[in-house]
């Protein structure tokens, strides 16, 4: 079970400045002059804000199974590295279209990139047709993740491929052909 030893200072804000007073406090806005004594209401508000934020943040991490402690700075850095930011979010940055070749039905491909790949395939045929998409970690993927078909019409499906996973789209019935195949990574 995850734990934290971070606690808020004066969580009830006893003898602490209210928000309006703190906003206008000259010691807060200009800093304390040399050898100044800081009044306890300002000190209590000053210490409560960052400690309350740190304690709440650490409790949120505990709720996600991540322990935090002030006993070891390096371990605290490692625990906080679990926090996702916009710099960590996986996005699709590159789009590749294979409208006139480059992808063949029934051929197994692999996502060799470091991020998931999103793929949209549109197939069609003059008569009745159906196809299946399989994707997993095996070099001969057997996990069906999508299927599509039609009767003289096109159909599309979109699926995600994890890094190092294999995928392929293959016809099951009729003679489907690729109308459009686009990949984002």
Distance between the termini: 36 Å
Shape: elongated
The rounded Rg comes to 29 Å
Low-confidence parts lasting 5 or more residues at pLDDT below 50?
Answer: none
Total strand count, please? 8
Largest sheet: 4 strands, antiparallel
The percent of residues in helical segments reads 10-25%
Q: Average pLDDT across residues?
A: 92
Class per helix and strand makeup: alpha+beta
**What amount of the residues lies in strands?**
25-35%
CATH topology of the largest domain: Jelly Rolls
Strand order of the largest sheet: 1-8-3-6
General description of the model:
This protein has four helices and eight strands; from the N terminus they run ααααββββββββ. It has helices spanning 19-24, 26-30, 40-63, 73-80, and strands spanning 95-97, 109-110, 117-124, 128-136, 144-151, 155-161, 166-173, 177-184. It starts with 18 loop residues before the first helix and ends with a strand. With 185 residues, it is of the alpha+beta class. 23% of the residues lie in helices and 29% in strands. The chain has a four-stranded antiparallel β-sheet with strand order 1-8-3-6, with no helix packed on it. Strands 2-7-4-5 form a four-stranded antiparallel β-sheet, with no helix packed on it. The chain folds into two domains: 1-89, no CATH class; 95-184, Jelly Rolls (Sandwich), CATH 2.60.120. The chain is elongated, with a radius of gyration of 29 Å.
Main traits of this protein?
185 residues, alpha+beta, Jelly Rolls, 2 domains, four-stranded antiparallel beta sheet, 8 strands, 23% helix
Describe the structure concisely.
The chain has four helices and eight strands, in the order ααααββββββββ.
């Amino acid at each position: 079970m995850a734990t934290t030893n971070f606690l808020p200072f004066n969580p009830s804000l006893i003898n602490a400045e209210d928000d309006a007073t703190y906003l206008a406090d000259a010691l807060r806005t200009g800093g304390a002059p040399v050898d100044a004594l800081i009044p306890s209401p300002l000190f209590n508000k000053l210490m409560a804000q960052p400690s309350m934020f740190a304690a709440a943040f650490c409790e949120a991490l505990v709720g996600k199974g991540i322990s935090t402690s002030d006993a070891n700075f390096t371990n605290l850095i490692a625990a906080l590295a679990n926090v996702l930011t916009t710099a960590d979010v996986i996005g699709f940055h590159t789009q590749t279209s294979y409208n006139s070749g480059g992808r063949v039905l029934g051929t197994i491909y692999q996502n060799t990139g470091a991020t998931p790949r999103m793929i949209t395939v549109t197939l069609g045929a003059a008569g009745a047709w159906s196809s299946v998409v399989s994707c997993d970690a095996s070099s001969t993927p057997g996990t069906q993740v999508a299927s599509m078909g039609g009767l003289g019409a096109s159909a599309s499906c979109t699926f995600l491929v994890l890094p190092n996973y294999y995928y392929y789209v293959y016809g099951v019935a009729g003679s489907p052909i690729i109308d459009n195949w686009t990949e984002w990574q």
